[in-house]
Amino acid sequence: MHRFQLRTTLCYGPDALEELSRLSGRRVFIVTDGFISKAPLMSRVRDQLGDAAIEVFDDVQPDPDIDAVVAGLRAYNAFDPQAVLAIGGGSAIDTAKAVRKMAIEQAVRPEASFFILPTTSGTGSEVSSYAVVTDTKTHTKLPLESPDMVADVAILDPEAVRTAPARLTADSGMDAISHAIEAYVGKHHNDFSDALAEKSLRLANQYLVRSFCDGDDMVAREHQHTAATMAGIAFDNSSLGIVHGLSHSIGGIFRVAHGRLNGILLPHVIAFNAGELSFMPAELTPTARRYAALASALGLTASNQRNLVLALSEWVKKIRQNLEMPASITQAGVDRSEYLSRIPEIAETAVGDYCTAGNPVPVTSRELTAILTAIV
After folding, report:
1. Do 167-374 and 9-162 have the same topology in CATH?
2. How much is the pLDDT for 229?
3. What is residue 145's predicted lDDT score, i.e. its pLDDT?
4. Where does 161-241 have alpha helices with state H?
5. Domain spans of the chain?
6. CB of 346 closer than 8 Å to CB of 249
7. Count of H-run helices and E-run strands, the chain
8. Which residues pair with 84 in a beta bridge?
9. Is the pLDDT of residue 252 over 60?
10. Distances (CA, A) of 273 to 68, 182, 314, 350
11. Architecture of the domain defined by 167-374
């Protein structure tokens, strides 16, 4: 028997922020960053919360670490909230998840409800049971997973992402694309996750670049926002793979945006998982056939299934180019010599990453080293 979990209520579309009025009169602990805490969005949130007692923890930093989670837990315990509201991108959401999980383990308000208001369209964290925090001593990214980190309500208001800069729109959008593709071929894929992954990619194909080019295109913003959440539901009920395993490992050492790394890695991982197509016989592997099916679902055409897999890889590259994203690690600003010297370490860390276990094709450190070398 398998399970497909849909635990989070989705409130979406214009004026979805009105859902927060349910928290009026309660003690609400808000987790966000310093920029959002002073942005106009926070005023709208306060208005919707009515006469709620509010405590704002805004010390969230990019790539949250264990120290930030401990600080957040200290503030949480002091306030003793009845509800938690995470506002922001993946960093704020993951911090809130980890804080709430630790609080529950300490039996501090285990019944406190959990709301998430994402301000980026990409992480899928608003509907997943995962979070990623960084070990401050080893700089290793630590994926966490627990049912206690699943939100009760996710608020998908397109106005919350309207002012997201073009670069953030691109990075988060490519993250969503990688979620959908990895979920579709992941070890635990299923009919339900397949449907959401396919729809997510079709929406991204139509609306991501539009969102990037014109942040005020609210039709594009709304559909890309829901596309990212669909991809999040898909991977939470399927699995991810070595795009994320490698990205976590690289990102723990070099300060490159997660979605940007995913965009660099994705075509190389498709080629690896499909069996290095240039050397393959006519009969495709099961994973290659799934990539071909996904290409067909996107409306891509080719003379045969092998070329459909290649078309999917080229589609990723085209989206990446239209989003003005780097195609290599050096184009992303990483020093070539330093990167090459750290490849053995990165590969070893990635082999043990939680996401790597979900890859449809088993991998070794040597194979990951080859991919890491190819993206220079």
Report:
1. no
2. 97
3. 87
4. 166-185, 191-213, 218-236
5. 9-162, 167-374
6. yes
7. 12, 8
8. 29, 114
9. yes
10. 36, 10, 15, 16
11. Up-down Bundle (1.20)
The confidence score (pLDDT) of residue 212 equals 98
Q: Write out pLDDT tens, residues 25-60.
A: 999 999 999 999 999 999 999 999 999 999 999 999
Alpha carbon 23 to its chain's center: 27
Residue-wise over 214-250: b if at least 16 C-beta within 10 A, else e? ebebeebbbbbbbbbbbbbbbbbbbbbbbbbbbbbbb
Three-state SS at 132: strand
Q: Around Cβ 24, how many Cβ atoms within 10 Å? A: 12
8 A C-beta contact, residue 173 and residue 323: yes
* Token pair for 185: 């071929």
Structure tokens at 298: 């996107």
Q: Please, are residues 200 and 234 in contact by the beta-carbon 8 Å criterion? A: yes
Are 211 and 224 spatial neighbours (Cβ–Cβ below 8 Å)? yes
Average pLDDT for 178-196:
97
Asked if CATH classification 3.40.50.1970 holds for the domain at 9-162, the reply, yes or no, is: yes
pLDDT in tens, 131-170: 988 887 877 777 788 988 999 999 999 999 999 999 999 9
Half-sphere exposure of 363 (CA within 13 A, CB side): 33
Q: What letters, b where the CB count within 10 A reaches 16 and e where it falls short, cover 61-100?
A: eebbbeebbeebbebbbebebbbbbbbbbbbbbbbbbbbb
Spatial CA neighbour of 290 closest among 266, 312, 314, 268: 312
* Distance separating alpha carbons of residues 220 and 208, to the nearest angstrom: 7
